[in-house]
Amino acid sequence: MTALQKKSDNPVAHLSAADVEEIGRRLDAIRQEVVDSRGADDAAYIRKVIDVQRKLELASRAVLLLSKFPPAWIIGTAGLSVAKILENMEIGHNILHGQWDWMRDPKIHSTTWEWDMASPAEQWKHSHNELHHTYTNVIGKDNDLGYGIMRVDEDQKWIPLYLAQPLWNFVNACFFEYGIAAYDLELGKNLATEERRNDPKFKAAAKQVLKKIRKQATKDYLVHPALSGPSFVPTLAANFVANLVRNLWSHSVIMCGHFPEGVETYEKTSIDGETRGEWYLRQMLGSANISGSKAMHVMTGNLSHQVEHHLFPDLPSNRYAEIAPKVKAIFDEYGLRYHTASLPKQVASAWHKVFRLSLPNGWMAATTPANAPKQVAQLYKLTTGGPKVRRAYDRAQRAQAEQALAA
Amino acid sequence: MTSTGLGLRDRVTRLVEAATTPLLPRDYLDLFAPLRSGADLRGKVVAKRHETADAVTVVIRPGRGWREHVPGQYIRIGVDVDGVRQWRAYSVTSDRAATDGTISICVKAIPDGKVSNHVVRELRPGTVIQLDQATGEFTLPAQRPAKALFVTAGSGITPVMGMLRNHLDELPDAVLVHSAPTAQDVVFGDELRALAASGRLRLVERHTERDGFLKPAELAELVPDLHERTTWACGPAGLLESLEEHWAAEGIADQLLIEQFRPRVLVTGEGGAVTYNKTGTTVESDGATPILDAAEEAGLIMPSGCRMGICYGCVLPLREGAVRDIRNGELTVAAPGDGVLVQTCISAAAGACDIDH
User: Dihedral of CA B184/B187/B188/B192: which sign?
Assistant: First the structure.
C-alpha cells in the first residue's frame, strides 16, 4: 500500500469537504444513540463476561493441578487458553479503553484495571489509546504500523534486513505480550543512545515492566506449577502453551485490524489541521473487519469490528455488532470500501503483505516461474549492493509505474 | 520487613497473591461470597415493604464487615441505576433488638429522584448493593434527655423512627410533631399512632393539605414547654432554616440538632472548565452543579461521601482556580502551589479549576 495521498486512484477523491463533514455528523449521531441507550443490560454483559472468565480460569487451573494425566492437561490447557484470551481481548483491552467507565464501578474502570499481560496497563494505555488510536495508520506517527520492526508500507524504504521480517513477525506472534511491552517502552529508540538509556523516565518505566513480567512469570511458571506438586512440569508446560496460544491468537486478530491488503495509510503531513470528519474518514479506511460468528466476535474482543472500534474506541464492545450495519450503510452511500472478510482470509492477506514487503517494491508482483532465476539474481544484487543500487532500483520502479499510468 | 519476620498468615497471603496476580484473591472470592468478612462492605436486599404509596422500607443483610450503627445515623448505599453506580445516604430505621442481623432503611420516591425512584420501584430482593458504615451525629446522647422533642416532615421521620424504635422506652417524655401532606402520606403512620395510643409518645400530626406548612410560631403553641426540651429536627431545608432562626431568636440554639439530606443551594456561580491533572480529563461544569456530580457524569471515579457537605469523604486539593460553595456562595480561591482542600460535593466551579485527582 502507498500512502493514500500519493495514490493515482485516491479512494476519497470523489468526496467533497462537505461530504466528509456530513459523514462525521452521521457518525457522531450513531455514537450518541449508543451513549444515550447504554444501560443495565450492557453492565450485566460485561459483569457476566468477567464472571465467566474468572470461573473458567479457576476451573482450568484446578484441573491443571492434576496435569500429569493427559486428559487433565488437555482440558486445563484449553480452558486456560480461552480464559487468557477473554481476559486480554474482550475484558482487558476494552476496559482499558474506558468502554465501561460510565458504570462508575471502581472495580471495572480504565483507571484501576490491570491485566494478565507483560505490559503494565498504564504504559499500554499511553501507546495504544493516545498514540495508535489518534494517529492511526499515519506513517512515522503510528508505531503500530509494523511495530517499528517491520516494513508494512511501500513508502517505508526497503533494506535487506527486511528479508527476515516474516521470521520476525512469527517470533513476535509467539511472544506477543513481550513484544507489546517492548513496544510500549519504545525499547528500540530508548536503548539507542546513552542519553536515552539513562533517562530516569525510561528507567522507571523499564523497571515497572520488569516488575510486572517477574510477577506474571512467577505466577505461571513457578507458583501454579509448584502448587501442582508432582504435576510441576506438565503445569508449567500447560501455562506456557496457554500463553503461546493467547499470543498467537491476539497477534493474528490485531494483524487483521490494520495490515490486510487494501487498508489505507497516510502521510505525516496529511493530518495537520485534520477535522473531525477527516479523522473519522481516516479511521474508516484505515481499519479492516473480520466476519464470523458471535463466539468469534467475543474471542477477538470485538476487534473483529475494528472499523467500528476505531470510529468509537470508547463505546462498549458489545454494541459494535448492532451499529455495524448503520456504519456500513454510510460507507456504501459515499462509495467507500468497507473492508471485511473471514479470519483465514484476513490473516492470509496480512501475512501476504508481510512477505510482499519483506522484498523490494514490485519484486513479488514481477516474479513468475519463468523469470525467477533472473529475479533472484537481482534480489541478490539489491541485498549485497549498497544504497546506490537500491536507489537505482526504486527509480526504475517509479518510472515503470508512471509509464503504466500514462498508458 | 525481612522474610523471617513474616508470620505464617502473611506468607500464605503472599503466596495466594502471587497465584492471582495481576488480580487480588478477593477479586475471585467476590464471585462466590460478596458478603464475606474482609470484602468491601456490601449488603443483600432481603425484603421490601411499602410504607406509603411512594415510600418503601428496604431490609438489607449487610456483609460480615458491618459495624453496628447508632440509631439516628445514616448509611450510604451504592446501587446501579441503568447500569450506573449511584450513591445516596439514607437513615437506618430498624430496631436493633428485633432484627436478625438485618438493617432497614426507608426510601421515599422524590420527583425526578434517580435513585429513590429506582429503589422504590425497581430494586428487587436478592440484589447485592454497595454499603458504607453508618455515620452521623444526629443521635441521642448517652445521657438521655428528660424531655425530648422531634420535629419532622416527610421522609425526615426516618432517622427519628430509628431512635424511637430503639430508645423510646428510655425517653420519659417524648413529643413528635410530624408534618406530611395527608394522613395516608405519613411514613410509619400506623406504627406512630400505635405508639401514641399506648401512651409512650405524644404525637402531633400535621397535614399540610389541611393545615399548611408547619411554622415555628405554631410549634410554640403545639409544644408550650419547647424551651425545656432538646429538639431533633429533620426535613426539608426550608423548615430547618425557619426552625434554626426561631431557636436562635429564642436563645436556645444549643438545644436544637438538625439533619438534612440534601445541601441547600443558595448561590450559583459562573461555572468553568475543571481539569483533573492525574487523569488528564477536563469537564465543563456549570455554576450550579457540584464538581463531584459533573466529574462523575463524565465517567470519572471520584471519592465521595455524604453528598451534602458534611462528611469530607470527597475532599480533593484544588491546585489552582476558584470554586463556590453552593450552599452559601462562599468563594474559595487557590493559587498554584496552594493545594486548597475543597469539598467537591458542595463546590461548583467559579472559573477554570485544576483539581489534583
Answer: negative
| pLDDT at residue B2 is higher than 50 | no
Q: Is residue A348 part of a domain?
A: no
How many other C-beta atoms can be found within 10 angstroms of the C-beta atom of residue B31?
13
In the stretch 240-259 of chain B, residues with CB closer than 8 A to chain A read none
Nearest to A40 among B82, B299, B300 (CB): B82
E runs forming strands in A198-265: none
Q: Answer with the residue of higher pLDDT: B335 or A177.
A: A177
**Pairing state between β B230-234 and B202-207:** unpaired
Same-domain check for residues A110 and A181: yes
pLDDT, tens digit, for every residue of B311-348?
677 889 998 889 998 877 888 888 776 778 888 998 99
Where does B208-302 show beta strands of DSSP type E? 230-234, 256-259, 272-276, 281-285
Residues A207 and A174 placed together within one structural domain of the fold: yes
What is the pTM for the complete model shown? 0.89
Binary contact (A55, B31; C-beta < 8 A): yes
pLDDT of residue B339: 76
Both A278 and A170 in one domain: the answer is: yes
Using a CB–CB cutoff of 8 Å, tell me whether B142 touches chain A: no
Residues of A with CB under 8 A from a CB of B: 38-44, 51, 54-55, 58, 98, 101-107, 109, 111-112, 114-116, 212, 215-216, 218-219, 223-224, 227
* CB-based contact, B19 to chain A, within 8 Å: yes
d(CA B165, CA B191): 10
Mark yes or no for CB contact B83/A103 under 8 Å.
yes
Averaged pLDDT, B214-231: 94
Residue B1, pLDDT > 50, answer: no
CB-based contact A223 B19, cutoff 8 Å:
yes
In a domain, A31, yes or no: yes
A369 and A329, same structural domain?
A: no
Q: How far does B354 lie from chain A, in Å, by closest CA?
A: 19
Q: Does residue A284 share a domain with residue A143?
A: yes
Question: What is the distance between the alpha carbons of residues A270 and A279, in angstroms, rounded to a whole number?
Answer: 11
pLDDT (tens digit per residue) in A284-342:
999 999 999 999 999 999 999 999 999 999 899 999 999 999 999 999 999 999 999 99
Domain span including residue A397: 362-406
Same domain for A70 and A11, yes or no, is yes
Using an 8 Å CB-CB cutoff, list chain A residues near B300: 101
User: Distance between CA B91 and CA A136 in Å, rounded?
Assistant: 52
Q: What is the ipTM of this complex?
A: 0.91
State whether residue B218 sits within 8 Å of chain A by CB.
no
Q: Look at residues B264, B211, B268, B210 and name the one whose alpha carbon lies nearest to residue B242.
A: B264
Higher pLDDT, B5 or B309: B309
Q: Are residues A336 and A366 in the same domain?
A: no
Position A8 in a domain: yes
| B120-140 pLDDT per residue, tens | 999 999 999 999 999 999 999
B contacts of A224 (beta carbons < 8 Å): 19
Looking at per-residue pLDDT, the higher value among B352 and A230 belongs to A230
Q: What residue ranges define each of the domains in chain B, with the CATH number in brackets?
A: 42-131 (2.40.30.10), 147-259 (3.40.50.80), 269-355 (3.10.20.30)
Alpha-carbon distance B220 to B96, whole Å? 33
Domain count, chain A: 2
Report the pLDDT averaged over residues A102-126: 92
